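Researcher: Checking consistency across runs. Here is 1,2-phenylacetyl-CoA epoxidase subunit PaaA again:
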Amino acid sequence: DASALDDEFARTIADDLRIEPRDWMPDGYRKTLVRQIAQHAHSEIIGMQPEGNWLTRAPSLRRKAILMAKVQDEAGHGLYLYSAAETLGVERAELTEKLIEGKQKYSSIFNYPTLTYADVGTIGWLVDGAAICNQVPLCRSSFGPYARAMIRVCKEESFHQRQGYELLSTMMRGTDAQRAMVQESVDRWWWPALMMFGPPDDQSPNTEQSMEWRIKRHTNDELRQRFVDMSVPQAKALGVTFPDPDLIWNPDRGAHDFGEPDWSEFTEVIKGNGAANAERIANRRAAHENGAWVREAATAFAARGQESTR
Ligand code: ACO
């Protein structure tokens, strides 16, 4: 009966075991996962655009090959995640539809434009760095398919983070103009990167329940703090600064104090009013519509294969 199923679910969570697609789960758990995994998948797919913008203008063949590999990895991450969402009974087509109708969110970070080539490095270092910080604990998320997808995603994100850092450190060994370009880029991306972790804990409607269900393992503020502490020594090694006058080591807490991101900007960006929201969605919609013939052909081909094996 219902309460036995509920107990079984609660025990699985308490024992730190995984919930699998065929297991009974509360409706709210399923809904939360679909929301988070869909948002995550959309972020990977939309996330191809800011860097894709520089593919044809990469400064060398080596940089172009690296960037192409990275952008393709993001497409792969989107596919693993849509597959994980499908195990919960939703269709990828339906999720894509919701994305291009503006009914489902994707990460705020991808609504900022990439103005210089240094942005490719900064996105790798800070944006993918923040993504890793947020996603490593998701490898232990209570839902099996999501947790397993995260393992491979995190390995690939680590490569992305290092290529970004390597790109920036190469530029920092270059000319004064290149160093200035790196600093200007870091100044633009620092605050939006901190916003990737979501609203402060006391304004995060989902955190408490998601922690109870062990979908999330840490709160938004805990991960933001971890990211700041991790990034400060890296910035020092690189020779750049962060645009935050309140950023300072606090020996009593054994952590850095830092300023408050502009949460009104965050709210505007997730409402659709960021610099690049309209462009990102228009591009995604066009790619989806232009790809309709490929999906139709693949479906017809698969149907023919089934007939011939009958
Ligand atoms: N960008 C867009 N929307 C956000 C962001 C953000 N940076 N942070 C929070 N939100 C949304 C939440 O999805 C939620 O939306 P809702 O209206 O559907 O409920 C709302 O703001 C309130 O936030 P929270 O209650 O804190 O939501 P949640 O518990 O889901 O935590 C978080 C947000 C931390 C982003 C979580 O969903 C998560 O860990 N997601 C997986 C990681 C991910 O999506 N990464 C994508 C970017 S990284 C990359 O692709 C390189």
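Researcher: Does this match what you'd expect to see?
Model: One thing to look at in this run: The CA atoms of residues 1 and 203 lie 36 Å apart.
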